[in-house]
Amino acid sequence: KGEVELVRHAIDQCGRPMVLSISPGEAPIRGINHIKAHANLWRTTGDLWDTWPELKGHFSICAKWAPHVEPGNWADADMLPLGLICLRSVHWEPHRCGLSKDEQMTMMNLWYIAKAPLMFGGELTENDKFTNYLLTNKRAIYIHDHSVNNRQVSSHDDQIIWSADDPQSKVKYVAVFNTRDQGSQEIPIDLTAIGFDKNQKCRIKDLWSGHKEGTYMGSNFRPSIASHASRLYRITPVK
Fold this sequence. Notes:
This protein is an alpha+beta fold. It has six helices and 13 strands. Strand 6 (148-156) and strand 7 form a beta hairpin. Helix 3 packs parallel to helix 4 (101-114) and helix 4 (101-114) runs parallel beside helix 6 (138-146). It is globular and about 55 Å long.
């Protein structure tokens, strides 16, 4: 604690804005008040590598820390291991991200909806089109930058749903994940669970493809999602 307090004091006295990120491995949640008072970012886990078991473990971690995320205080789920990675690692050989495209999209959707800091861990000059696509979706970045009340709504039978609100409108955002290891699942999205009235009709749009899914209410919208895949939606109430 003492070292962090000294750094915070030095930053406050230096006369210019500066972000303090602490990375000792997983921060102790019991010390959250002290952490938020002195640091802007804190690691919530050890190093994240490009394997599905490690990524899947981040769902419970992000859900645990979500209530403590606010402007100026961000739960750091570690760098995004995308593109060409490990160029200077002493433990791993340089290689392309080992996650499938669906798994990479799932990682990005979790980071966007959970407002985890977006720190790229690959060699930018070697990015392929898909990696750049994941990092430059303006609609998804808007959620990361502007949404509020970001939270896990439900987690059951490897079906995980997160939601967030747009502070400038009545629009809500939903990320839906199928973390099952085999088989597609139809995952019902309960619009009342994310804050809409049971009789409220809503238009649903996929924020990656731009596809308009249609108008739904209650739990009528049940997208089919492949194993390890996910979707990110914009939910707009119909006046």
